[in-house]
Specification:
This protein is of the alpha/beta class. Helices cover 39% and strands 20% of the residues. It is built from 11 helices and 13 strands. Strand 6, helix 4 (113-123) and strand 7 form a beta-alpha-beta unit. It starts with 9 loop residues before the first strand and ends in a 5-residue tail after the last helix.
Amino acid sequence: MAYKSPVYHVIPVPIEKVRPNTYNPNAVAPPEMRLLYESIRADGYTMPIVCYYAKSQDIYVIVDGFHRYRVMLEHPDIYEREGGVLPVSAPQYRGSGERAALQFAVSWNAAAIPDILDILKDKSVRAKFAASGEWAENNPALLMRMAAEGHEIASMGYYPDMDGRIGWTVKDVRRANEAVKKICGAEPAIYYEGSRNTVTSTLAAKKLKLTAVSSTIALLTAKGTAADILSRLPEKPIEGSIILLRPTAACKEALGGIINAIEEKGIGLTCTGDVLGLSE
């Protein structure tokens, strides 16, 4: 099945489950807000509200479309006519088809990476390595090997353990991408936010024309033993999943088993861009 962009997945969401983000750059004057209201009253909603789904809270956080949200919030006639629901397009952090992706977040603990690359090569599996700019500059040989062996190189920003407002994030991610490209020649097209604010990261990625990607399944490879990690695999792998790993010693020990368990279920493994259809 071919990849479909989020715009093709518009869903009705009760306005009570939609939240504004903490960063909204546009101020709309009352006359323009009135015109927007009149337009929606006459023609209905013709564009969805773009949101990020915050699973832990079961809410949708607005990335684009705050003022269309305001119209329903502030006008009872629109709320009543629309049944209190908004058209929402929420980016999906998974692809489709009988494939899944291995996504490594690389910002510390590089000792296991040579062995991890050996395992991937032996198993003929391509993966995505989201590297921080700082890590890339400290480990250029490993980054070059990742690229040379056909793995997808993505970005985590330069200092992924730090966060800031959108302007700071844009500069940080741009610096990281420039460092990665200088070292291995690959220009990242995907940005993995890690522990950063999702809304700020999504807006920063949009400004840099990058695809912001999270993960479907996190195996928590920084916690526990190889057996613990393997026990966290879903009994039935989710088609199109993006599986997040950290390149720890325990991850290295579990990796062969992870690959075998998924492939035995008939799910092929590849990099994130392939699963999302970005490489096609």
